[in-house]
Structure to design on (213 residues):
């Protein structure tokens, strides 16, 4: 009996709910990607951060100068992606768009609306609970594709690259910053209903940091 009690206690401690804070540090385009100034959409999605919550999404319009969008010197309110209760293992998915014309960025802000879009260009929506946000944040790149007039018949893909990473903060020390990084791999247009990817170099590197409380 004591052995079972101890085992149960260890399991409950490992998967206890903790508050996770994730902040964006910088996004760097690969050398083979255009170095000209550009604006791109970065989508970050938490996958099953805790039971009953399938996704949490953050969208940012990034302004690149010489291939880099640096957030490290900005205010906390501009860097924050998530401050979210998490429980057990979960994942994070990043997706970055191709360069966006100014008129597309303006249309994106206008269509999302001031009630959801913050001044920093972010949307943080609970896909399970927010009706209006769910239709947008679940398919932000399809939404952008419509704005730029992309046609599925031409196999146009607004996404330039994506990548996912599994996370489990059970072993993280409370209050200690943890540096994280993920390389976004290039995405090909859809072909015969199946999305493929090149086994090539990353198109961008996302540097972010996490902390649990």
């Amino acid at each position: 009996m004591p052995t079972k009690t101890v085992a149960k206690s260890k399991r409950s401690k490992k998967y206890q709910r903790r508050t996770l804070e994730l902040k964006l540090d910088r996004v760097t385009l690969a050398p083979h990607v255009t170095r000209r100034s550009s604006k791109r959409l970065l989508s970050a999605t938490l996958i099953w951060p805790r039971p009953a919550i399938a996704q949490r999404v953050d969208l940012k319009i990034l302004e690149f100068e010489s291939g880099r969008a640096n957030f490290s010197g900005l205010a906390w309110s501009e860097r924050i992606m998530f401050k979210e209760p998490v429980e057990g293992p979960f994942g994070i998915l990043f997706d970055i768009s191709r360069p966006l014309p100014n008129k597309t960025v303006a249309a994106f802000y206008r269509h999302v609306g001031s009630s959801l879009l913050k001044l920093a260009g972010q949307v943080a929506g609970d896909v399970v609970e927010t009706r209006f946000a769910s239709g947008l944040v679940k398919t932000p790149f399809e939404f952008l594709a419509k704005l730029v007039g992309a046609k599925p018949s031409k196999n146009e893909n607004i996404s330039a690259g994506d990548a996912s990473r599994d996370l489990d903060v059970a072993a993280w020390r409370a209050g200690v910053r943890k540096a994280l990084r993920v390389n976004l791999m290039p995405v090909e247009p859809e072909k015969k209903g199946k999305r493929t990817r090149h086994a090539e170099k990353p198109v961008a590197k996302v540097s972010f940091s996490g902390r649990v409380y």
